[in-house]
Amino acid sequence: QGQLMESGGGLVLPGGSLRLSCAASTISMFNFNVMGWYRQAPGKQRELVATITGGRTVYADSVKGRFTISRSNFNNTMSLQMDSLKSEDTAVYYCNGVRWGTKEEYWGQGTAVTVSS
């Protein structure tokens, strides 16, 4: 089974920016229909941040206008540009892919984002 791996997390000041990346290994992102980013804050359930299907993007209301999701199947990568970060964006961020046809889901291990002064 292929793997997804996130990178780019870290500590950032409120109002700052981070760019998360998701790379696929041993599987091509052409195999995925929907791809997305989810996050899980301490003590909370995992929630949807953004998804991308072809050229169509969907964002959680809490990140609209601040986060931008993008994807390059040719480069086998997906990114999440996060601007104007707030303390409530602190969470572990996960990359997700849903395979065409079988709808099998793939998850990365997560990358931690901490927004704090």
Description:
There is one protein chain. The chain is mainly β. It starts with a strand and ends with a strand. The strands form 2 sheets. Strands 2, 4, 5, 6, 9, 10 and 11 form a 7-stranded mixed beta sheet that branches. A 4-stranded antiparallel beta sheet has the order 1-3-8-7, with no helix packed on it. The model has no long low-confidence stretch (mean pLDDT 96). It has strands spanning 3-7, 10-12, 18-25, 32-40, 47-53, 56-59, 67-72, 77-82, 91-99, 105-107, 111-115.
| Secondary structure: number of strands | 11
Shape call? globular
Q: How would you state the average pLDDT, rounded?
A: 96
First CA to last CA: what distance?
Answer: 40 Å
Order of helices and strands: EEEEEEEEEEE
Low-confidence stretches: none
Largest sheet: 7 strands, mixed
Secondary structure category: mainly beta
- How many helices? The count is 0
Tell me the β content.
over 45%
**Rg value:** 14 Å
Any key phrases for this structure?
117 residues, mainly beta, seven-stranded mixed sheet, four-stranded antiparallel sheet
Concise summary:
The chain has 117 residues and is mainly β. The chain contains no helices and 11 strands. 0% of the residues lie in helices and 56% in strands.
In terms of topology, how is this protein built?
Elements: E1 3-7, E2 10-12, E3 18-25, E4 32-40, E5 47-53, E6 56-59, E7 67-72, E8 77-82, E9 91-99, E10 105-107, E11 111-115
Parallel strand pairs: 2-11
Antiparallel strand pairs: 1-3, 3-8, 4-5, 4-9, 5-6, 7-8, 9-10, 9-11
